[in-house]
Fold this protein.
Amino acid sequence: MSEDKKIIFSGVQPSGIPSLGNYIGAFKNWLLLQNDYNCLYSIVDMHAITVRQEPAALRKKARDLLTLYLALGLDPEKNIIYYQSHVSAHAELAWILNCFTYMGELNRMTQFKEKSQKHSENINAGLFTYPVLMAADILLYQTDLVPVGEDQRQHLEIARDIALRFNNIYGEVFKIPEAYIPKTGAKIMGLQNPSKKMSKSESDSDNNVIYILDEPDKIAAKIKRSVTDSDNRVIYSPDKPGISNLLNIYCALTAKSIEQAEDEFASKGYGDFKAAVAEVVIEELKPVHQRFKELSADKAYIDEVIKKGAEKANYLSQKTLRKVQKKVGFPAKL
Ligand code: TRP
């Protein structure tokens, strides 16, 4: 990693193939960052087990996600792509930070409240201290910037609070991370419920979400069935959330402006418009599908990326971890 570049860290849970919303809102942007920043992308399997997982399925989802990153075009030489569970410093730092985090702070986390309602049969301590592990992820690498959506804002905020608290006691140990707001990237909403973000975990139905690896005919069918309104005019407007969302998708992938797209479809109806949106999405994802297929078949290469990623992340994380251990009074290893 070159010293003069800022560090970006992001974690994604291995909870299945991500959506077109993730693609437009996050991954497309990650590709633009890889030359100008030192980026770490962790597949956060330790976070994933805060809810029950089927072991074999979790392993597969993690590997598929890592393979997908590569298929999208993230270069494993430029970015550090790794499994969180392969770097034990995450757990070690999380423990220490637990001792600098207050129950009251964690009690205020809205995601904890939501998740404890959803998983009322399993409100475990890991779910409660989830934000502390996330703080450890970020702080271990002296991260400058964290690309976060609205739903993770509060977690980034607590990571900053913990870091500041620690630094106040022990001196400048942690870099205080900031949110990274991408220059482009519209927020993509659900196809069936365009008032809510297109989300893999909260999909009302399968038709609500396009997954990055959906087959072309499936993509076309989902877009065709997407909720619109009855006036048949392709116009961007708050009272046309379905059409506005499709316009956002179309423009994000064609680099056209909303006005250009409105002009293009001024004399056309929803049928033509939806077919055009589907076409653009399918073409965009085609090379990703192709590379995913090729890479999935190359076990040795993927294994190598996994191994190298873990090595690099381990090396970097040890620097911060050792410093922290010393500060809190752990004896030097002999
Ligand atoms: N909590 C994040 C999510 O569910 C995932 C995550 C874990 C993360 N550690 C992180 C995101 C560090 C950014 C930085 O989306």
Observations:
- The mean pLDDT is 95.
- The pocket of tryptophan is lined by residues 9-11, 13, 44, 47, 134, 137-138, 146, 148, 152, 155 (CB under 6 Å).
- The chain has 14 helices and five strands.
- The two ends are 29 Å apart (CA to CA).
